[in-house]
Design brief:
Length: about 375
């Protein structure tokens, strides 16, 4: 029972952060305590420029600010799990050996200069969202004193990841606009996405302007006897199931309600995110409105393969060749790339020779143009 209560508390912290970004650091600390990690973060990484944006970070208070800064400025571009990690499905737990061998990993500058000084040694990662040129990642790293990733950490990481993903997606929908739970409806009325506050039967208690437009258009949603429903019958049933589950809180909802797909009568694709209002700091809003959930509806983004996935598939590149390709594009020539990747100049040259053969290119400039063409950039 204590473990169930601990999980419930952690999930509540995660969902509270969806409405107030200032709570994310506390939520990540809570998650790390639950899964047994010394550091955790939510960050996005561009697969072409390798630019990184660490959205939220938690770690050793005495050193976190310094390492947070150096990751953004320098070491994010050297992180050897990229671009390989973006090949993995959303929500799947990924360990370092799934992307790069441990022997190769510990030779990289990233490990030697950034992880080792923090005594961080192993960790898990999961894609929360993948776009055409970037991905959002949830990471949890272990201290040497905690040992390597074990079954218990992986199991708990996999339990919490879907909830982190839903919270992040809802935060993205509301554009990280800080809201107070007590004034939830008023604060979210100006959202471009449709937002409904509903009870366990789907009865609409409040709807913002965008939600009213969705009902008026009668393409993806309808209001029958004051209850929200989708024209897509399967999607409508799933929505109702989630509303009913939300009565029992975050844990009861589980993985359901995360990016529920809805098909409009016109054929357009929409997605619904359901946030329970019966747990954590959101409970006050739920009581105020006699509601069980907030529902966010938006058009689905086009699901395109990322440039690394597309390039690797088109030219049959191995993970090692793909790492060298993107390192050459971002960092420079062979002498610069070799120490960053922790391999010899000759190994880089061998990979580069095969890359040139497979892509029918001859120069580094040709490779830059090739990858840029897959990203849609000039």
């Amino acid at each position: 029972m204590r473990e169930a209560e601990e999980l419930s508390q952690v999930i509540g912290d995660v969902y509270d952060a969806s409405l107030d970004p200032a709570l994310w650091q506390n939520a990540i600390e809570s998650v790390c305590g639950y899964i047994g990690a010394a550091s955790g973060s939510l960050h996005s990484q561009d697969s072409i420029s390798r630019a990184t944006d660490a959205l939220f970070w938690w770690g050793d208070p005495s050193s976190a600010p310094h390492y947070f800064k150096t990751y953004l400025e320098t070491y994010g571009k050297m992180n050897p799990i990229f671009p390989g990690v973006i090949f993995f499905d959303v929500e799947r737990s990924v360990a370092v050996p799934d992307v790069i061998s441990c022997e190769e990993f510990v030779r990289t500058r990233f490990f030697r200069e950034w992880l080792a000084p923090q005594s961080l040694t192993d960790g898990l990662f999961s894609n929360l969202e993948k776009g055409a040129t970037s991905c959002a990642l949830f990471t949890a790293m272990r201290h040497t004193a905690q040992g390597e990733v074990d079954d218990r950490m992986r199991q708990r990481f996999e339990l919490i990841t879907p909830h982190v993903r839903r919270s992040m997606l809802i935060g993205k929908v509301i554009d990280l606009h800080r809201v107070e739970a007590a004034t939830l409806a008023d604060s979210l009325d100006e959202l471009a996405s449709g937002m409904f506050i509903v009870d366990s039967t789907g009865r609409i208690i409040h709807a913002n302007a965008s939600a009213h437009r969705l009902i008026a258009e009668a393409d993806v949603l309808r209001a029958t006897n004051g209850r929200i429903a989708a024209f897509d019958l399967q999607g409508s049933r799933k929505l109702l199931d989630v509303f009913m589950a939300a009565r029992s809180g975050d844990v009861a909802v589980g993985k359901s309600g995360i990016a529920l797909p809805l098909t409009a009568r016109s054929g357009e694709r929409y997605v619904a995110h359901v946030l329970p209002l019966t747990s954590g700091k959101r409970r006050k809003a739920g009581v105020s409105y006699s509601a069980t959930a907030a529902v966010f509806i938006r058009k689905a983004a086009l699901d395109l393969p990322s440039p690394p996935e597309a390039v690797a598939s088109q030219f049959n590149l191995t993970p090692a060749e793909l790492r060298v390709l993107f390192a050459i594009i971002e960092i420079g020539g062979v002498p610069e790339v070799a120490p960053v990747l922790g391999i010899s100049d000759q190994t880089v040259k061998s990979h580069l020779h095969r890359i040139y053969e497979k892509t029918a290119t001859k120069r580094q400039a040709d490779l830059v143009k090739l990858v840029a063409s897959y990203s849609g950039r000039p």
